[in-house]
Design a protein that fits this description.
Elements: H1 3-10, E1 25-26, H2 37-53, H3 60-76, H4 82-85, H5 91-95, E2 113-114, E3 120-124, H6 139-156, E4 162-170, E5 180-190, E6 193-202, E7 205-215, H7 227-230
Antiparallel strand pairs: 1-2, 2-3, 3-5, 4-7, 5-6, 6-7
The structure holds octanoyl-coenzyme A (CO8).
Octanoyl-coenzyme A is lined by residues 89, 147-148, 151, 155, 162-165, 191-193, 213, 215, 217-218, 228.
Length: 231
């Protein structure tokens, strides 16, 4: 049995981010939100893994409980709408992000760190709710995480851009339940055009690599260029 098979035997869903570790300086705030919404998102992530990764005989009680919870959250929550913040990289904006958002249960536990040369790295393991081919991460999830990592590499170099062109080479299947490492860096900037590249490894195996062209939106302001890092 391989190490990854053994992990799969013991785990349903994606590992808690605390299981991933990396050197470097955290790019994004790691604090729990005082309201508890970070914790709520974490428990909902657990639920996603359990629902996607298990079969049950009867879950009608669970359906009622979850429906009551959803009704309660709908009643007490204040929606966060883009028109209310309207800018890049504020906590309200980043919190909902599907790759790194603390409030978003869809986001995998991507906790990027930055190095002095502005390389951005994220170590993580993905569970069954991110599966594409049996035992492997879905290619669209790999693309999502690359897009985000490239965006963060741009932010680490104090620039911001919309993805204009994203090319991914899938070299080897990306395993579930195995330590993965994304590394991204900004390569060059010409006017509003920004090029960045990234790799994804499982151990020593190169699973995929990415090259992206980003275009800085017209009218972006200085303080928005590195916001995800400076909080
Ligand atoms: C913390 C947050 C991290 C976020 C990371 C996630 C990023 C995202 O998900 S962004 C969402 C996905 N991307 C999009 O929706 C983008 C949609 N496209 C657009 O909005 C526009 O086409 C946009 C902004 C990319 C470019 O439009 P515009 O600002 O009008 O630029 P435009 O003047 O046409 O072109 C500027 C330059 O870029 C080049 N360019 C634009 N698009 C492309 C392209 N697809 N391929 C190659 N070159 C391009 C142009 O040729 C031009 O080059 P040059 O200056 O040498 O002549």
């Amino acid at each position: 049995m391989t190490a990854s098979n053994e992990a799969e035997q013991n785990q349903v869903g994606t590992a808690d981010p605390a299981a991933a570790s990396s050197e470097g300086i955290p790019l994004l705030p790691q604090d729990e939100t005082p309201s508890g919404s970070t914790e709520l998102a974490r428990e909902l992530r657990r639920l996603r893994g359990l629902v996607a990764g298990s079969v049950y005989e009867d879950v009608h009680d669970a359906v009622r409980t979850v429906r009551e919870l959803a009704d309660h959250l709908e009643a007490v929550g204040k929606p966060v709408r883009p028109k209310d913040y309207g800018t890049w990289g504020t906590p309200e904006h980043i919190g909902a992000n599907p790759a790194i958002g603390q409030r978003n249960p869809v986001s995998p536990p991507l906790e990027p760190v930055v190095f002095p040369d502005a390389t951005v790295r994220a170590d993580l393991e993905l569970g069954i709710e991110y599966q594409g081919p049996p035992g492997c991460v879905h290619g669209g999830i790999v693309a999502l995480l690359f897009d985000e990592m490239l965006g963060l590499a741009n932010a680490a170099s104090k620039s911001v851009g919309m993805t204009a062109d994203l090319r991914i080479t899938y070299s080897s299947p990306t395993p579930l339940y195995a330590p993965l490492r994304f590394e991204a860096r900004q390569d060059r900037v010409e006017g509003r055009k920004i090029w960045a590249s990234a790799t994804l490894h499982a151990g020593n195996t190169l699973c995929a690599s990415a090259e992206g062209l980003f275009v800085e939106p017209c009218g972006i302001r200085d303080h928005e260029r590195s916001r995800p890092i400076e909080g």
